[in-house]
Structure formats: structure tokens, C-alpha cells
Amino acid sequence: EPRRTEEPAQSTGLFEAANREFESTESGSDTSDISEELSTQGGEGKSPGEAASGLKAGPEDSALPDTQLQREERPTSTCSSSSVVGEVVKTMQHFMEKFGMDLFTVTQAFLKNTGEVETTLYFLQTGQRLDGYPVWTREDDLELQKDDERVRNKLIAKFGAENVAKRVAFRKS
After folding, report:
1. For 75-88, what is each residue's pLDDT tens digit?
2. DSSP labels for 100-126?
3. Would 163 disulfide with which of 14, 20, 89, 159, CB 3.0-4.6 Å?
4. pTM for this entry
5. What is the per-residue pLDDT for 76?
6. Residue 172 to residues 144, 158, 168: CA-CA distances in angstroms?
7. Domain ranges (residues) in the chain
8. CB of 113 within 8 A of CB of 105?
């Protein structure tokens, strides 16, 4: 079935939210402390606006929230892969809710299944791959990196030629 890549605007916002959420859960309170330190560091008598910019704030600098918002949105709108990333984040969030799993488990499932959504979904449901082949392990990936025809043939026997080719491309991306 064709992949839906409309609503890129929505998915970029979702990606940012997920990213922010990920960062905040990942590092506890570190991230929020950093911004506070920045505004208080060496800036006892200054207003937060001046401390943040490190310069005497002119009137145009006082519109800090606006410039911050624009700065956050610019990279995602110009980056063409952001809608794809947004889709993946959405899919992963969906899987996490559907199966009650954490981000790590879902990410691992994606990695083991070469990032293929349908295969990963099937794997999370059944513990097996859709095509009946085993999932990739770290050992398999290490074997794959060896430029050895015997090893490569062993992997092809285990996973099928198409899966090995996909895996090589996936590891390069």
C-alpha cells in the first residue's frame, strides 16, 4: 500500500514534540537547568534578554519568544527528510501505545527488521518476521561488515538475498 506522506506540517511538529519529550525523559532535569543557568550566568544585574544574547538588548531583541519559535521551525521546514522522520516517530509512538512498549523496545524492533514498518508491526505482534526469516542481530550485522563471500553466503542462506541487500543499504543510510 502506498505510504502516506501528506501532512508534513503536522508531522514536523510531532517530531519536535517527540524529540523534546525524548530529550527531557532521557536526561531528567538537565535540559531545563541549562537554560536557567544561561540566563543567570554572569548576568546578575542584567535582564534575562540581555544575559541570553550577551549583548545590550535593543528593542528588537526583546521579542525573544518569536525569534526562538522561528529558529526552531526553520530547520524542519527546509529539511526534506523531516516529514519522513515525522512519519517514523508517529509510527513508533503508535506501536508504543498499541503494544504498551517503551521507546527502546520499539526502536530495537525497527533496527532488527531493517526499519520496515509492516515487518516490524508483524514482529511486535507475533515475535516473528512477516517473511518467515529470522530478525537481524548485532552478530549478524558484524558478520555482514566482513567482506567475506562465505560469510555473506551464510547470511543469504539465513535471511534471503533480498533481505541481505536491504540490510546493507539500511546500514549505510
Report:
1. 444 455 678 788 88
2. T--HHHHHHHHHHTTT-HHHHHHHHHH
3. 159
4. 0.49
5. 42
6. 12, 21, 6
7. 81-134, 136-172
8. no
